[in-house]
Amino acid sequence: xxxxxxxxxxxxxxxxxxxxxxxxxxxxxxxxxxxxxxxxxxxxxxxxxxxxxxxxxxxxxxxxxxxxxxxxxxxxxxxxxxxxxxxxxxxxxxxxxxxxxxxxxxxxxxxxxxxxxxxxxxxxxxxxxxxxxxxxxxxxxxxxxxxxxxxxxxxxxxxxxxxxxxxxxxx
Length: 171
Description:
The protein has helices at about 15-30, 35-45, 50-55, 80-95, 105-110, 125-135, 145-170; strands at about 5-10, 30-35, 100, 115-120. With about 170 residues, the protein is of the alpha/beta class.
């Protein structure tokens, strides 16, 4: 059996995935990449950080993405450009050596490419609410709606990315 090269950590928002990823990487003596991937993707793609943050906060339905079948130019929507840049960054980081990657659909991106250990971190809705209020200063009035919105957004992004991975890597 081949050695595990990458640990991917998927997580619910405010379930502690970032903290656990850093702890695991520290114990193993390998780098942990989380939100740094977004910064690297912005630099690589030339897309403004503000655009990437909008993308991170609101998934667009694939059915709402405009497609021009008659265009001779290969102009992709910004969501695809961002995902392609994040995918490229993840592949570059993995090529450098063992690491922990938190989020960014890394488990889907690396599927059948690299030997990975995929972990999903969850916590009770109540614990995640507490974390959101304490660590992210989300008010008690809006915390439940915000967590549900993030969960929906993450599910939509994962579905879109599962469909896109094949385009970038010719699966």
